[in-house]
Design brief:
It is globular, with a radius of gyration of 19 Å. By secondary structure, the chain is of the alpha/beta class. The protein has two domains: 2-135 and 283-314, Medium-chain alcohol dehydrogenases, catalytic domain (Quinone Oxidoreductase, Chain A, domain 1, Alpha-Beta Complex), CATH 3.90.180.10; 142-263, NAD(P)-binding Rossmann-like Domain (Rossmann fold, 3-Layer(aba) Sandwich), CATH 3.40.50. The longest helix has 13 residues, at 136-148. Strand 12, helix 6 and strand 13 (199-202) form a beta-alpha-beta unit. It is 24% helix and 28% strand.
């Protein structure tokens, strides 16, 4: 099968079709999305080597569960052991022995086939198109915030970042409070949010400080410092950015202001798929361009362009 791999440099190669382990399914990938994390891997993030990609929709070809065979699915990316202390504490995303699709010790979905545990797979409603279903994984990451903190209609929330994840977070949090503003640096991306009645500001605009929650999704190592400037004393900063760049932090400000800092990663697929099915979250306008897998190198370059939002691979 054809696959887009990274082994110090990205390449299109021919690889054997994966052989699923017991309890795993073989999935024929239909479409996959390029994430900022994929671009960071190209810079050395996680030291990953193998097939890239973790956002996908596909059809199950072989598995033990007859209810999955032939069905369209999306997949959670953390593959866990069920035996370690964190699995016992029902914290599987932090499994000590986990592999992570296309990120850590497991080949990803930028390929014709991918293998994942059956328990990681979620059926996709027939009303959701492939190019929309691809957004289930990053949208689940946006919904993770609502599992971690109790944002109310009265809370003032600032989302830093107008990129792919920032756009999804703004829509999810906008369903909880209208006292929300998304801050970015790209006029055209901010206009997309304005069309959905989400308040926006340019990063150079004067900003009122003292937000109850600041959600950092800039994709830049400098976003954390900006978040600390905008959050109120005893407020909460939620970090979504993962970057390869090493960062030196001045920890005096969060100590003095007693700011809570929460890392936030993978999230629940059920509310994500439900939001996509009901179009409570609209992602169609976020797709900039679709490439065939054979043009994967060009797709990666396009995903790095300032005028690109979501780049998809058609497998």
């Amino acid at each position: 099968m054809r696959a887009l791999v990274f082994d110090g440099e990205p390449r299109i190669v021919e690889k054997p079709i994966p052989r699923p382990e017991p309890g795993e399914a073989l999935v024929k990938v239909l479409s996959a999305g390029i994430c900022n994390t994929d671009l960071e891997i190209l810079k050395g993030y996680m030291g990953f080597s193998g097939t890239l990609g973790h956002e996908f929709v596909g059809v199950v070809e072989t598995c033990d569960n007859e209810n999955l065979r032939g069905k369209r699915v999306v997949g959670e990316i953390n593959c866990v052991c069920h035996n370690c202390d964190y699995c016992a504490l029902e914290m599987p995303h932090h499994c000590l022995n986990r592999s992570v699709l296309g990120i850590l010790s497991r080949d990803g979905a930028f390929a014709e086939y991918v293998a994942l545990p059956e328990e990681n797979l979620h059926l996709v409603p027939t009303t959701i198109r492939d190019d929309v279903a691809v957004f289930a994984e990053p949208l689940a990451a946006a919904f993770r915030i609502l599992e971690q903190v109790n944002i109310t209609a009265e809370d003032r929330v600032i989302v830093l970042g107008d990129g792919k994840l920032g756009q999804l977070i703004a829509q999810v949090i906008g369903g909880v409070t209208r006292n929300l503003i998304c801050v970015g640096k790209h006029g055209w991306k901010l206009e997309l949010l304005q069309k959905m009645n989400i308040a926006v500001a340019h990063m150079d605009d004067p900003m009122e400080r003292g937000a109850d929650y600041v959600i950092e999704a800039t994709g830049s190592y400098i976003g954390f410092a900006r978040a600390l400037e905008l959050v109120r004393p005893e407020g909460v900063v939620i970090l979504k950015t993962t970057v390869a760049h090493p960062t030196a932090l001045d920890l005096s400000l969060p100590v003095i202001n007693e700011v809570s800092i929460i890392g936030s990663r993978c999230g629940p697929f059920r509310p994500a798929l439900d939001a996509l099915a009901k179009m409570n979250v609209d992602v169609r306008h976020m797709v900039t361009e679709t490439f065939e897998l054979r043009d994967g190198l060009r797709a990666l370059r396009r995903a790095s362009d300032a005028d690109a939002m979501k780049i998809l691979l058609h497998i």
